[in-house]
Amino acid sequence: MVPLLEVHGVSKVYGNTRVLNQVSLKVEPGEILAVLGHNGAGKSTLIKLISGVELPNEGSVLIQGKRVIMTSPLEAHKLGIGCVYQELHVIDGLTVAQNLFLGHEKTKKGLLDMQAMRHESRTLLESFGLSDLDPDSLGKELSHPQKQMIEILAAINMQIKVLLLDEPTSSLTLGEVDRLLDLMRLLAKKGLGIIFITHKLKEALAVSDHVTVLRNGSVVLADHVNNVHEEQLVEYIAGKRLVENTESNVSAHSDDSSEELLQVSHLSSGKALDASFTLQSGQVLGIYGLVGAGRTDILKALFGLEQITGGTITMSGQPYVPKTPTQALAAGLYYLTEDRKVDGFIPGLSVALNMVLPSLAAFEQNGMIKFRQIAAKVETFMRSLNIQVDRETPMANLSGGTQQKVLFARALLVPGIKILMLDEPTKGIDIGSKTEIHSLIRQLGREGYGVIVVSSEVEEIMAVSDRILVMASGRMVENYFLRGQTEEADLLRAALGGKSRVQSA
Amino acid sequence: MFNQRRVPKETGIFLILIGIIIVLGLVAPAFLTVSNVFNVLLNSTTIALLALGETFVLLTAGIDLSVGAVLALSGVVAAEAFGAHLPWEIATLLGILSGSAIGLFNGIVIHFTKVPPFIATFASLGIASSIPLILTSAVPIGIQNNVFQDIGQGFLFGVVPIAVLILLLMAVILHLGLTMSRFGIHVYATGGNREAARLAGINLAKMDIAVYTISGTLAGLGGIVLASRLGSGYPTAGSGTSLFEAISAAVVGGVSLFGGVGTIPGALIGAVIIGSLADGMNILNVNSYWQPLVIGLVILIAVTIDTIRTSRRRSVRITKVVADAMKPAESSRETMNAK
């Protein structure tokens, strides 16, 4: 069979850096190919080359055996390559049907034929098991996973042959992931070729036929999925055997030296209802739950970003009513958001300035910033957190894991910070850096910080927390005190809405 | 500030200015005389002052359309103050403060009502350009005061215009403020990523109000220089292309319309480029009807370069940038809750 898409020895060079080196892959009709790799391994560049955003410096791209040169995404589209990016582009003000036909609207005598589009949309939605979606719903009424489905279907509706999915499951909950994987299988069955870019090994193994692992711009593994197993993939991705160290460093903090940093009683805010818990210094508190369970709302309320509708908070014994982030920072709380790119850092500013942004006042003398002092401080933190970049590099040029470490350093630089709230601290971060960040979180606990970690990954919560709270539909349903005595399955069951056993700590 | 070890960012635009000067000097030897060079600088002063203030607003990804109108307001307010026999210091200060007041108003409206800057400052453009007409019934008011006259017409050592010295002094102060102070870094941060800046504890209300007030204050100062040069408070001063020349000067000088990128020296060089082109065309006897066309093309090229540069760097689609520019100043709470 002639492959739908064949990439032959492509390389891409930016300046002096070779980000892709002689990469080859192919996708046959009906095949799902998973592409795995670190951030910075070259996955994004590969997508850009295949989807016409950029041209390779070497090598060729063949579609159904014919060599093509794609100079724009539109051209790639016309040749049958559709790409669904992490950031979705469903238009809020248009209906589902209009989104599905965007750019190739059906017309009758020069006027839009809404009737036909609505009808075809319904057929399309039904054929992919999405009959619960109304073609007349507006884009803004859809949830994130629904938007993603619509975007995939819109690509299919344009008669594409190869579908590129860039980290499609990164913000989906478990059930939604399953639904997406089912959709992918269904599409493959209909003869489509799918390239599935992901960090998540389990998903890759569950759905794909072939896997390709990229490291430092080169293919280090390409095999049928039956010939590989998870451990082996981790090694290929990381390039080294990872030390399983999470179990060995159980909190060394003794109970008598810790003080109560935070007491939250019956807090309601946004989706969170009647949440009560305490946080001790030196403790890592994991909050587990599905996306939308109200976990983030608690953090936002504590940071003064979300209106508190009920309950009280005390910090180190004092009543605490957060109104603005500025106030929360002054009180000793730091919040690392879920979405670094959206609200975490200033892309055009240097690593150094991003790191000291909230603590600039400490480097000011007579109204002038002391850049030397900043440089010295930043270098110290870069060494201790193993950040290997020039401090003047713009933040945007760093990989996700490095950006996250810079933001950790930023939090630690703020004078008087006692509590760190980390929302999905390893989202979109490669496996190597993930382990590093997990041990960093453990270390922060040992150093006496109170840490709250919100995550939808059970493994992550289990790896870092001393105590785990489980949230479902806005309520705290479980409260596990001891680390190491919890089973993954317990957490999952609780999060999926088992018994509602609200406990106050 | 950001790349102390590397070549300053303004090098490129500075070389372009040198190129323009050399070309103009070759085709019109009169261009490169000392008195003409100062004349070019003097003629650029008002626009440059507007551009410096506008730079602060542009850096936060805002825009201030009211600066041209403030020129007239400030001049007329000063003239009225002289009419009321107030001393020159007070009259000048009142003129400048009238600009600050418009800027303060802009900042407050934009921050607290979330009206997009484009619309809010367009509204205050209307307000600021009406007040002088109402005050004067559209009749220019002459100013007879020797000290005040020297602001725009006086020379130090007989060659260096005082207005140019004022401009350079302002540029130095603003440059230091932008590169060496906490406030300056917060300006870049606010324009670079508004939400991230807020979460890093930056008080956005303070930032919005400060940058528009700075812009208005400098426009007020520009109005004083202009009134001094004209010898009167001219109720329709600045109603022409001043606003667009000021924004263009900043953009030609490398200040991005999309926020977070740009410098004071850049904006200053941009203003001098626009001024040199205008002056050069006068010397070359280019029909004055053609001059805005040439300047228009220069602006178009500069903005095009900025757009391409910005969209490459951030790989943001231009449509999104435009959509963002039309959004209210702070839609953060909404977007956060929508998640």
UniProtKB/TrEMBL annotation, chain B:
<feature type="transmembrane region" description="Helical">
    <location>
        <begin position="55"/>
        <end position="78"/>
    </location>
</feature>
<keyword id="KW-1133">Transmembrane helix</keyword>
<dbReference type="GO" id="GO:0022857">
    <property type="term" value="F:transmembrane transporter activity"/>
</dbReference>
<feature type="transmembrane region" description="Helical">
    <location>
        <begin position="209"/>
        <end position="228"/>
    </location>
</feature>
<feature type="transmembrane region" description="Helical">
    <location>
        <begin position="155"/>
        <end position="178"/>
    </location>
</feature>
<feature type="transmembrane region" description="Helical">
    <location>
        <begin position="90"/>
        <end position="112"/>
    </location>
</feature>
<feature type="transmembrane region" description="Helical">
    <location>
        <begin position="289"/>
        <end position="308"/>
    </location>
</feature>
<dbReference type="GO" id="GO:0005886">
    <property type="term" value="C:plasma membrane"/>
</dbReference>
<protein>
    <submittedName>
        <fullName>ABC transporter permease</fullName>
    </submittedName>
</protein>
<dbReference type="Pfam" id="PF02653">
    <property type="entry name" value="BPD_transp_2"/>
</dbReference>
<keyword id="KW-0812">Transmembrane</keyword>
<keyword id="KW-1003">Cell membrane</keyword>
<keyword id="KW-0472">Membrane</keyword>
<feature type="transmembrane region" description="Helical">
    <location>
        <begin position="249"/>
        <end position="277"/>
    </location>
</feature>
<dbReference type="InterPro" id="IPR001851">
    <property type="entry name" value="ABC_transp_permease"/>
</dbReference>
<feature type="transmembrane region" description="Helical">
    <location>
        <begin position="118"/>
        <end position="143"/>
    </location>
</feature>
<feature type="transmembrane region" description="Helical">
    <location>
        <begin position="12"/>
        <end position="35"/>
    </location>
</feature>
